[in-house]
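Q: What would this complex look like in 3D?
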Amino acid sequence: MDFIRQTLVIARKDLRAELRTKEALNASLAFALVILVLFSFAFDPSEKETVDMSGGLLWIVFAFAGTLVLNRSFAREVPNDCLDALIAAPISGSALFLGKALANFALVISVELVSLPIFGIFYNVHWTGQLWSLLLVLALGTWGLTVIGTIFSALTVNIRLRELMAPLLVYPMLIPVLMSAMQLTMQLIAGKPLGGENEVWLRLLVAFDVIFTALSLVLLETVLVG
Amino acid sequence: MDTRNFTFMFYGFLAAWLILVVYVLSLVSRERKLAEQLKGLKGLLDDRDRK
Amino acid sequence: MTAVAAEGVWKFYGDYPALRDVELHAEPGACLALIGRNGAGKTTLLRIIGGFSKAGRGQVRIFGNDPRETETRRRVGWIGHGISVYDELSALENLSLFGRLYNLPDPHKSAMEWLERTGLERVKDGLVREFSRGMRQRLAVARAFLHQPSVLLLDEPFTALDDRAIAVLQRLLREALAEGRTVVMSTHQLREALELATHVALLNRGKVAFHGERTPQMAADPGWVYAHYDEA
Amino acid sequence: MREKLIYGLGIIAAILLARDLYSIFMVLPDEASQGMIYRIIFFHVPAAITAMLCASFTFVTSALYLVTKNLKFDGISVAVTEVGLAFLAANLVTGSIWGRIIWGIWWTWDARLTSALVCWLLYAGYLMLRRAIEEPTARARISAVFNIFAFADVPIVIFSIKWWRTQHPQPVFWGGGSIDPAMYLTAVLNLVALILLAVVLSLIRLRQEEMQREIDSLRRYAHAV
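A: Here is my prediction, written as structure tokens for the whole assembly.
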């Protein structure tokens, strides 16, 4: 179907362009590692404390490192007026959004999958206990992060204070995602299963992803075409 | 308990009113600034039209 | 069927009317030059025709359809101020990317064809970042012609181009017009534009001050139109 | 016409507020456990409700702008949002002062207070975003889209923070807590008074927004000539 093909074309373009320069990817990875190291110096947590704060620490790292990549998403189109070429191309706003979101998702997930083992080593936390549930939470949380990051990168693409404005707008929006992801990650690392009273957090995460993916698919066209 | 209770209630009402008053004052000052700009621009355009 | 038609188009920036009741049309095979001072609304009008922004009031039609419709966009080519190609990708990668976006039957073949026609086939695998200005501009021209658009919209095409790129663009535009395609361009370079133009439209502070055929007299003295129709 | 409306509503709001202040301090008895401090609730809760009403209203006008592209709705959106933010700030401050007595600490990461703070940050972002865009039409469009995203986030924020941690007493009016009819009447009257006050302030702010629009177009006209 055309929609899927065009989405993949956009996603592949974004990934190829990013992997060629790796500027945002390296910055994001370095940023994640620095925070992990600093936190271990700052708190020097005991075994019990580490597990308690694992969810919070990991998702703060993911959120901040992630936004470095996400802000670049539409900013990359500005130098040669490439955004005009994409708007002029016969693809719908939703295909453009989904393509960019998928590319961003892949990049942010890769940063996370690198930082997770490093977190395990630095804080000697056994995080592979419930690997599949953890990866599910990681995917859902990162998709929420990516959707909001991508649409706000588009929203602020033509604004002069773009680098400053995007984070200021994104973080308050992300609080529900970060909260539920932190809660679920901590429970999983502490060994508790996903069901039970964590169920409600999982539902909130899924609801957030669905609502804002739908909103972004509909509204990107309005954002880009004046 | 009672005196502290009263003082904090007083602070509470004072704070609530203070915020609203500060906001109203900012509205008033903005109103004056806008009116001046409007008058200045209109004056500028009138002179230019008369020339 | 009129290629490009603007009917009663208004465009507001806040309350300021950038375009005021613009009535313009271009038949297939015509080359309409939009001229006018800076801020007269040339680029604003062109961007509405290209579907980059919507008219406040009135409407723009390309072959009778709304410019934002996917099918219509498949038939429109655009050259703006920026070259709209990616520095991180090579010339061939850029053109095949746009070839796939425009759903061409064989993106690679069309890309190679247009690289040859703009003299870039030898550097097809070089990254655009390493290209000279002239090569980048010719690649932008190749991208605009890649999907054989029936309508070509050019926003001040001759300002940023070097001599070789201008020659290439003029040759391609003449061929396109001969094949019955339509060109609408906003421009300051009256000489290059008036050579190609079949019709001229003068915009003055958002209003159409003059719209008509290009007479030989205009080509001879580019300032003529301004003198007769452009009040202060 | 609008002038009369502003002054008329302003006077009604003032009268109501005076009556409420009188009844809050003079008429109503102290609450058994909390002593006098509970009186703050007569401002704390109505301020939150007014702020929430402002948020919903500005969501509607933002959506209307996107549909009609009429700048009037954009003006209303910014006016109502700004007033809503002022009331939410009042709610936050009174809440923390009340908390100081009840829970002994200035700021508790309690569900209601935290979600009010997050909502405040969201809509403060809206105003900052507006200030970063000059061109009026683009500003209206971009801020309307942001407003829709912010409004969609509010319920999720409230739920997520409520589950995260809750110390806030069950809602006194709807929580089935027994409430003395006189108190209830005063609270409702105070709510009406605050809503009227919000309408008045919004109308004033709207008039300023229109003046600003007129200034912008005169300035562009002056440059163009």
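A: To summarize the key features: Chain A has a mean pLDDT of 90. Residues 120 and 197 of chain A are 26 Å apart (CA to CA).
Q: Very helpful, thank you.
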